[in-house]
Amino acid sequence: MPAQRSGSMWLYLRGLLYAVGFYPLTMLFAIPCLLIGPLLPFRARFKFLTLINYFYIDWLRICCGLGVELKGREHLPKEGAYVVVANHQSEWETLYFQTLVRPQAVVLKRELLRIPLFGWALALLRPIALDRSKRRGALKQLLEQGQQRLDSGIPLLIFPQGTRVPVGQMGKLNKGGAMLAVSRGVPIVPVAHNAGLYWPGNSFVKYPGTVQVSVGPAIQTEGRSVDEVHAEVAGWLEQTMREQGSLE
Fold first, then answer.
1. How far apart are the first and last CA of the chain?
2. What Gene Ontology terms describe what this protein does at the molecular function level (predicted)?
3. Between 138 and 52, whose confidence is greater?
4. What is the reported pTM?
5. How far, in Å, CA of 24 to CA of 143, rounded?
6. What CATH number does the domain containing 45 carry?
7. What are the φ/ψ torsions at residue 124 (nearest 5 degrees)?
8. How many whole angstroms separate alpha carbon 226 and alpha carbon 243?
9. Nearest 10 degrees: Cα torsion 111, 58, 210, 235
């Protein structure tokens, strides 16, 4: 659980220091990414463009006292395509997971690609950018583009809650990850974390502590139904989030 939440002014100043490093460096780093990235094959491009994510995680530790404890990394397949399904509580996991699953194609909201420099560089990572206002079209796009990424041997990262869900709540998990994994017969790897305890939602303040990240055993999908796979993933996520203290 997080440390006692006192000294709000000090926490705000630490958050401000983090922002002073985060935003200018992100914009500056986007420039060489846009110049060099298109010239590189995808895997080399991913390695180059996500180098800055290691800085983000270290900068959070230095400025805000926010570290990470990872368990189960050995469960991530060493090669081939697979689907990672994780809970979504904070901005933290969008930064950290780029260092955990390499390379990857992430499912995200289309609006992020419109951010000058940052969004343009993000587009080079071949994300699946969904228009969440068109639910049927979004599902079709997810399945079509997701299958293309998997067929290319690129792992997928999906947040099935679709948006950030506050600590203490589970929200509804969509079946897109299970549908994709079953359609291509690839493993699905559940990942749970409690980042929302330390970096809640859109909060400017980050609380010191250690984010717990747990990678579950790969779930095989060949010969299984979507509902069966989805239920196993959802059950593992719910149980692990309770153990981490982020779900009542």
1. 13
2. 1-acylglycerol-3-phosphate O-acyltransferase activity
3. 52
4. 0.93
5. 36
6. 3.40.1130
7. -70, -15
8. 26
9. 40
Please tell me what DSSP assigns to residue 4.
P
Task: Determine the structural domain holding residue 30 and report its residue range.
Answer: 8-244
The single residue listed with the structure tokens 């330390």 is 198
Task: Collect all residues with Cβ–Cβ distance below 8 Å to 181 and sequence separation of at least 6.
Answer: 82, 83, 187, 188, 219, 221, 229
> What's residue 131's pLDDT?
87
Flag whether 12 is in a domain: yes
Residue 172 belongs to some domain of the structure: yes
**Average pLDDT in the 122-138 region?**
89
Retrieve residue 209's tokens: 């502590």
Q: Residue 196 phi/psi, 5° resolution?
A: -65, -20
Of the given ranges (4-13, 20-29, 146-155, 160-169), which has the lowest mean pLDDT?
Answer: 4-13
The pLDDT value recorded for residue 83 is 99
CA distance 246 to 248: 7
The total domain count for the chain is 1
